[in-house]
From TrEMBL:
The keyword Repeat applies. SMART domains: TPR. Keywords: Repeat, TPR repeat. The keyword Repeat applies. It comes from the Archaea. This is TPR repeat protein. TPR repeats lie at residues 18-51, 52-85, 86-119. Gene3D superfamilies: Tetratricopeptide repeat domain. Pfam families: TPR_1, TPR_11.
Amino acid sequence: MQAIQCYDEAIRINPDLAMAWNNKGVAYHLQGNHSEAIRFLDEAIRINPDFGMAWNNKGNAYANLGNFTEAIHCYDLAIGLDPDDALAWNNKGRASGEQGNYTEAIRCYDEAIRINPDYALAWYNKGEALRATGDSVNADAAFARARELGRMASAAFQET
């Protein structure tokens, strides 16, 4: 992958460039090589332990490996660094839901939505968690909001 070669070159020039290590990890993650992604994300975090994005990305890699406990730990670290990281809250909700902890998942989605009320994916995920608890009325409302936001985003995209 050409992107990985570019990140390798950036790392060769500056081995302490945490963003390059992070991005290399994400590239491996996108290829499905989650264990290797974690290795590179760990290097980004070693260079900059306060790099919330790298913690979030490491959580994603663990989640894709099915290790939701470790994923939640990484998301908690990302959230600890930036409590207003709606993406990390949404991802923590997803991992919590995968563990069957729908109450926690809904709490996380609510936090993501509080931070970003127009976060369509968080609304959709909240609907899925509510449906899993049997709360079809609130699930339908969350799905409706997600659809509305999706239509709004689609219309805005078409206007540009």
